[in-house]
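Give me the fold.
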Amino acid sequence: MKILVLGSKGQLGCCLADQLSDTDYEVIYTSRSEIDMADLAQTKVNITNLRPNIIINASAYTAVDKAEDDQQEADKINHLAVANIASTCGEIGCWLIHISTDYVFDGAASHPYGENAETNPQGVYGDSKLKGEVAIQSSGCKHLIIRTAWVYSEYGNNFLKTMMRLGADRDELSVVGDQIGCPTYAQDIAKTIVSILSGLDLKRSSGIYHYCGDEPCSWYEFALAIFLEADIHGLKTPSSVKSITTAEYPTPAIRPTYSVLDCTNIESVFHVTRSNWRDGIKTVIDRL
């Protein structure tokens, strides 16, 4: 089976390389230098020539705040390029596994979002990702859309690495405490995708699945867990970490107040387990 990974240099792409390294799949890893998704015509040619059995799209425009002023680029990568890939997958009979986000919801719920919950993105990033989802569903290609949230790892830029960097430089930090979500270790997302691969066949129906961390927390609580583990490793941490409100830390893009995803569907269908983000913190700090 031939697998094409798009976005191989991002944090999920790097984790997919780790998790696929011990498998027998023929895997082709591409970054923007090999397949520029924004070049729709050439992307179509490249995919058609490669003729993979499965495409894993780990590539996206993820600069949430920048997207507010860069709507055209966010739409091009998260919507139009995805529509083009999905259309091409449909033409060659290829599965598409696409990674989406909790930002398709408005964050106003008080209980975990199921896959069929009403979508209502509050910013350009979430809107562009939702349009990408709709384009995949409309294309008729065989697909799995996996929504996840609060992704971190030893690779790329993410909240954990930002906290480690700031914690080494500052004695006092303020972290938002009124946004709730489920941190998700990217290696666990990659493991889940790899475990799903062997079960993909014509009998498996397309659909949307949620996958995230196993325990809700705030960004403040996530930061405290990071610093606790860093301290155990003998690393410098702030002497004071203060919980602040979203209003005290304004950003160009609105963040969902509540981003907890219901993962029971993916657990029951594919027999996977949710990401234990506390264990993930330990692993990342060990590797860093």
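The CA atoms of residues 176 and 246 lie 6 Å apart.
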